[in-house]
Amino acid sequence: MSDPDAPIAGGAAAQLLEDVRNSPEGPQVGAFFDFDGTVIAGYSVMAFMRHHLRNFDVHLSTTLKTLAAGTQKLETEEDFRKFLQITGRTWAGRTPEELEQLGQQLFRDEIGPSVYPEAWRLVRAHLERGHTVVLASSATRFQVGPAAKALGIEHTLYTALEVDADGKLTGHPDGRTPYGEGKAAAVKDFAAAHQVDLDTSFAYSNGNEDVPFLATVGRPTAVNPSGGLRRAAAERGWPVVDFAGRPWSGPVEVARTAGTYAGMMGGFATGLGLGLIGGSRRAGLNMGIGLGGDLSLLASGVSLDVHGAHHIWDSQPAVFLFNHQSQLDVLVLGGLLRGNFAPVAKKELATNPLFGPLMRLLETAFIDRADNAQARKALEPAVERLRSGVSVVIAPEGTRSATPSPGPFKKGAFHLAMQAGVPVIPLVFRNTGELMSRNAMIIHPGVVQVAVLPPIDVSGWDAEDLDERVESVRQLYLDTLAHWPGED
Fold this sequence. Notes:
Helix content is about 45%, strand content about 15%. A 7-stranded mixed β-sheet has the order 9-15-14-10-13-11-12, sandwiched between helices. It has a 6-stranded parallel β-sheet with strand order 3-2-1-6-7-8. Strands 4-5 form a two-stranded antiparallel sheet. The protein has 20 helices and 15 strands. The chain is of the alpha/beta class. Strand 7 (about 220-225), helix 10 and strand 8 form a beta-alpha-beta unit. The protein has 2 domains: about 10-240, HAD superfamily/HAD-like (Rossmann fold, 3-Layer(aba) Sandwich); about 300-480, Glycerol-3-phosphate (1)-acyltransferase (3-Layer(aba) Sandwich), CATH 3.40.1130. It catalyses: a 1-acyl-sn-glycero-3-phosphate + an acyl-CoA = a 1,2-diacyl-sn-glycero-3-phosphate + CoA. Its EC number is 2.3.1.51.
């Protein structure tokens, strides 16, 4: 049974997906997405401003002027250029390389986790139809570039910034800004250059300044619209959809989260103790994992909706793969697998005050992602555990993903399975990042959806085609997330 509260499961958002999936195929159909407020919740520039304030490299007056300007109506290109002159002072004198690196860091840590799951699924649906997908924003490439890469979007329209003879930013825009009529003009130019038929194309935006932009295509949609755009959409007969926002964290959620961790540690200690009394350390570990998982999920108000659970038990030992989104994944794994597994994790977790001691008890293989030789050596005990009948759990991305899209998969998990002669079993977590975002500490109640895919036999794999094989497994995750079992 699927979660009835899943954001994309019904209503206008589901109709958007259905419309895309029934639309003509091919690159002549464009899909133009605004960024701030449409693909992500909030405004990416604020992540940059917070960073600069934390590092004392921006004047408070500039921040206050930015905030004040942001509260004013920016209806025209000229309004936006004046706003940009204020915010641009922050970046004057910096190199594009500095800002690219900062943009990637902020996307990973702050901006990426605010991507709307509904927007991600819409992007995936357009890509599957072979449409020409474009991130069209008045933001800079330092803001939209990392998002486009993570979402698999090839094309971007953005505000270019002027670079002086010394290779440093002046703080001024370079050319026309894609804002208001400027964005409409940029879309028309792009369509002409890429043979995109605007009459059959799609566009999505949240701001009333984007009415001209939306009007360039035959299939516009107002997404999370401002009051002005909502009125314009009603007048023009455009579809309107509101994506579900991130849940709010209050005292109840804080208390639940504290109870969650207490339940995890208390349940694990109790189970381990009972097992040791019975004379079996492994039985104690298994009992502790299951009891700790159950109590922590109960305290957090999180339940599991699992498709294909029988695959967990049919082919053990195995290397279980999971797409890593947040710390909630650890609790889900305990409640899902129950025991008889050992984790593989990055070495930084060994010193985590909450999970470190627990993971050492679970005989975790800690690997240094920056040292390939050490990583291979650290996996040797995991091979022995697999050969002794104990499964291994690993996040093939090596770190938490910033968006619902899994990042590139590393090959270690697959080498491990090949060496031990066991299958890999993909565990696809759909929405742990929605209930607990990437760097958050607070867990929100809800239903975590999990799809356990059939075991994959890797006995015939070899080094020559390993990259292609690994990418095919990652594609299984993307396909499952875009077409959830029981919903299509």
